[in-house]
Amino acid sequence: MEWETVIGLEVHAQLSTNSKIFSGSSIAYGAEPNTQANLVDLGMPGVLPVLNKKAVEMAIRLGLAIDAQIAPKSIFARKNYFYPDLPKGYQISQYELPVVANGHLDIELEDGGAKRIGITRAHLEEDAGKSLHEDFHGKTGIDLNRAGTPLLEIVSEPDMRSAKEAVAYLKKLHVLVRYLGVCDGNMQEGSFRCDANVSVRRPGQPFGTRAEIKNLNSFKFIERAINYEVGRQIDLLESGGKVVQETRLYDPDRDETRSMRGKEDANDYRYFPDPDLLPVAITAEDIAAVRATLPELPHVRMQRFMDAFGLSHYDAELLTQNREVAGYFEAVASGCNDAKLAANWVIGEVSKALADNGLEIAASPVSSDALVELLKRIQDNTLSNKIARDVFAAMWDGEGSADEVIGRKGLKQITDTSAIEAVIDEIIANNPKQVEEYRSGKDKLFGFFVGQAMKASKGKANPAALNDILKKKLEG
Amino acid sequence: MSISAEEVKKVAHLARLAVPDEQLEGYVRNLSNILKLVGQLQAVDTAGVEPMAHPLDMAQRLREDVVTENNHREQYQAVAPEVENGLYLVPKVIE
Amino acid sequence: MSQADSIHTLSLKGIRDGVQSGAFSVMEATDAYLDRIERFNPELNAYITVTRESARAQAVAVDNRIRKGELSGPLAGVPYSLKDLFCSEGVLTTCASNMLRNFVSPYDAHVAEKLKAAGGVLLGKNNMDEFAMGSSNETSAFGNVRNPWDTSKVPGGSSGGGAASIAARLAPMTLGTDTGGSIRQPASFCNITGIKPTYGRISRFGMIAFASSLDQCGPMAPSAEDCAITLNVIAGLDSRDSTSVDLPVPDYTASLNGSIEGLKIGLPKEFFAEGLAPQVGDVIDRAIKEFQAKGAIIKEVSLPNSHLAVPVYYVVAPAECSSNLSRFDGVRFGHRCADPKDLTDLYERSRWEGFGAEVKRRIMIGTYALSAGYYDAYYLKAQQVRRLIKQDFETAFAEVDVIMGPSCPTTAFGLGAKKDDPIAMYLEDLYTIPVSLAGLPGMTFPIGFAADGLPVGIQLVGNYFEEARMLNIAHQYQSWTDWHTRLPAKFA
Questions:
Q1: Can you spell out the DSSP letters for C310-345?
Q2: Using the 8-state DSSP alphabet, how is residue A337 labeled?
Q3: Which is catalytic among the residues C25, C83, C97, C159?
Q4: To pair with C172 at 20 to 30 A between CA atoms, which of A65, A262, C220, C460?
């Protein structure tokens, strides 16, 4: 009999604020240990938290983007447990009445269908510090710079039925949070981390006991960890065993999950409303103000790119993964008035060059305006596509605008038919054997003549004109 | 209403307090008496009463997202029991 | 200098005027109090730390600024003390606990900053019940405080050291904190005036928390006028405490002389029922009659749920404290046990050794009340009854302007009398706790002495943010009586 996999995901997205959620410390990554931990972050006696307004706005922003309800009154609670990287002995989080509830995200399935994944809630909380286990005479070192960094915990319904669906959901959410500007999505630095609740059951049966896999920080690992865990649970059940509700850690080196021991007694968190923080009131005006600043959402923009520009689903999706890329593309498309040409270039040359150099589009040496200038030279037949790529490379290297590069290097395409005719006449004269074979029906040789002509013109001959003239002359 | 020695031990561990065995009984007695006192609440009819977490019927005041703090590590770590290279040290944490 | 011998009998206004006119210097005023501390504190144990050196340095600086005309405010050159749970930068701040026995605060509490900026001179830090948990000042890790009116008696608590300091004039003013009566009860036991303002009126930043939804700082001094002057300096919004209230702060001294004719005073019948010692009740009755004679209208009101206040408090306050005190874990500050063998050992032994018995009891009760399976029955239930108690006050204030009654059921009790009986100790606060739960302002001022010769204070409760009215009423009473000026013979 078949097993059905059930997956729910909890994503911790670090919010892109300047300061911490409850204090005025910087959240910049990579500072010297404990230099960004102030009195409040250290939980010194007598200090009090004061909530960062921007963090609340960002939570609302995500809530609106996933069609969720924004709580008019939201409550902060304390989650009590002892751990050295948790300075106060409690984490300020939300329990009842989170800022965001009942949203959803639609993912595309491999068969082309769509599926709606419910998002139960998204709540604000503070991050903990870091424990460093390198050797300090057999002790652990605590760095509290990260303590108090604002997090939005986004909790899905157990709606996913495979590791692939889970990854599709995560990628969609990853695109969305970056699009909204609420999270930089940097998984390496832990800005976007995920815990997966995984269980299996016989179809139609109630949910099985779940295991929670902690701190998965790449899409690849998430897929592998879930698949491993599903296999483990099925093996266990089929051999008559039972799944234990527990927290497990994925080990990418051994590609397995393993139980985290010794955490079982930390489970009574004694949540209660934080008496230092009054309820947060979010008015309809507050929500409207955030809504007014929302960008066009990725799935809406993708649909528009398909409808308005006639792009394929694939191209449209690629171009809307990132808000800056989509903006760049739109600028190029409207500048050159040819969306397909623009799409080919942005997905092709531009993305490749960015990837090769590890750059974001905002840092591209070739601006959208500069690219438009280049593409216009293709459109007016000054350049072939091939030569245009060389020009692009020169522009990328800072050699000037498209026209400057073309002028300096003499790359202007030959559209003068008499010049092309002269080149072709010479080739026909020099290759009598091939001409004869062609004329006796060996059509495939046409490519040979094109190649020779292009080579002779150093690639500058206008391909369309060259084809025309060559055909005429050969048919002679 | 009373609390057993087992429960006191459990609560003490949750609160990270190491009750020595010889003092356990005293805590059981005192805590049971306190629970008896607060047990009076059980008889009160509170149907439909909204819990009051806070005396002020107001909304929270928020702060602007501005970095206002700078590094005071040395000053703050002067009161710490054990630090090295700017890190607070604790006995080895096993993950 | 003849005046130096009597500086301690001056009001805050008298000290301020004295240093401004040059009748005596800030240094002389400071020394006058430091000398009295040196003389009397060994017997009273009202101070944990005396900041003699920094006080004298501050006195020099303030003297200079006054001479240059830079400083002339109402607290310029006025010495004061602080309960030892207000963080004072560079000064030992212990909360009367072994946990913080060596804790030199790296920062100033909001109110400490305010008093410093106003030109006050910090004399030292007052003894208290450990982490403000207690009603007799006997839970202090630094020894109990004695009541200046009878040194075999307790001064009350938790602001017992502050109350004793004021009663014996070892400071002209101090700041205490009140969570369930910790300003009002010791003020009553020690014949001084103390006010716990509305919750949120004064910033809690830098005040080491006991129970966050109840804690409020307030001045303690001989007179209502002294309290008004101090409140003017420390009340108001603080961006570092999001529960501090953004409402204008009135000049509390401006309305002190207003008439109380026609004032409607409510007497909660539940506060005069069984449990109130007759000798205390007699003194209260007499004071009420005096108010009546001055034109106040007396009316009986009812607070039908007030008998539930102590049970509610002993769920809510321990629940909050169990969480608030989790930060004392031996990692970043405070006591760390010797040679911890692992992390759990570090936590469990540091905390066991650092906290005293009453603190540990409350942490355990609070942990229990919040734990899985008990939350609804204890914590949530207590929150609901808390609202019923608040609603009782709202009903009463629809009919009267203020509420009056006893601050405590008895006069100061003997040292050790209730030390081993937590429940008896908790019931000490049955009249003050309801006010704290509602977040209302409450104050105590001296109204005479009971048959046993010990002082009695009356409790005055106002509606939210009506501190000015309350101070006005107390000041009027003090303008026709002199109880508040009386000193225990031994410390005159």
A1: HHHHHHHHHHHHHHHGGG-SSSSSS---SS-SSHHH
A2: T
A3: C83
A4: C460
- Residue A7's pLDDT is what? 98
Give residue A341's identity as a one-letter amino acid code: L
Test A48 with C240 for CB contact under 8 angstroms: yes
Question: How far is it, in rounded angstroms, from Cα A283 to Cα A163?
Answer: 39
| DSSP state string for A208-265 | ---EEEEEE-SHHHHHHHHHHHHHHHHHHHHTT-----EEEEEETTTTEEEE-TT-GG
Chain B CB contacts of A131 below 8 Å:
93
Q: Which residues of chain A are modeled with pLDDT < 50?
A: none
Q: Considering only CB atoms, which chain B residues are within 8 Å of C423?
A: 33-34, 37
Rounded CA-CA distance C291/C289 in Å is: 5
Mutate to test the interface with A, among B7, B84, B88, B92 (most CBs of A within 10 A): B88
Coil, strand, or helix at residue A160? Answer: strand
Q: Which of C136, C158, C188, C322 is catalytic?
A: C158
Write out chain A residues lying below 8 Å of B71, CB-based. 32, 35-36
- Pairs of residues, one from chain B and one from chain C, whose beta carbons lie less than 8 Å apart: 170
Q: A295 CB near a chain B CB, below 8 Å?
A: no
**What residues in chain C have per-residue pLDDT under 50?**
1
C479 is catalytic: no
The pLDDT, as a whole number, for residue B74 is 96
Residue A385's alpha-carbon distances to A325, A454, A462, C69, in angstroms, are 22, 13, 10, 83
Judge whether C179 and C131 are in contact, CB under 8 Å.
no
What percent helix, strand, coil does chain C show, rounded to 5? 45, 15, 40
User: How high is the mean pLDDT in each 10-residue block of chain B (95 residues)?
Assistant: 92 96 96 96 96 94 96 97 96 80
Binding-face residues of C in 243-282 toward A, CB within 8 A: 243
Backbone angles phi, psi at C297, to 5 degrees: -105, 125
Q: Which ipTM score applies to this complex?
A: 0.97
Q: How far apart are CA C485 and CA C66, in angstroms?
A: 28
Of B53, B68, B87, the CB nearest to A141: B87
| Residue A115, min C-alpha distance to chain B (Å) | 37
Res C1: pLDDT = 45
Report angle CA A121, A122, A128 to the nearest 5 degrees. 130
Counting Cα atoms < 13 Å in the Cβ hemisphere of C409 gives 17
Four-CA torsion A324, A328, A331, A335, nearest 10 degrees: 180
A354: its two tokens:
């960015």
The reply to whether A86 touches chain B by the CB within 8 Å rule is no
Tokens representing C6 are 């009597």
Shortest Cα distance, chain B CAs vs residue C248, angstroms: 16
- A212 burial type by CB count under 10 A (0-12 exposed, 13-18 middle, 19+ buried): middle
Locus of tokens 């001409």: A435
CA angle centred on A75, ends A71 and A77, rounded to 5°: 145
> Residue type at C410?
T
C64: left (phi over 0), alpha (psi -120 to 50) or beta: alpha
* Residues C258-287 pLDDT 10s: 999 999 999 999 999 989 999 999 999 999
- Residue of C182, C188, C203, C223 marked catalytic: C182
Is C158 noted as a catalytic residue in this protein? yes
- Chain A residues within an 8 Å CB radius of B16: 82
**pLDDT tens-digit profile of C369-411?**
999 999 999 999 999 999 999 999 999 999 999 999 999 999 9
pLDDT at residue A385 in the model? 86
Is C327–A142 a contact, with Cβ atoms under 8 angstroms apart?
no
| C354, C336 Cβ separation under 8 angstroms | no
Give yes or no: C83 in active site.
yes
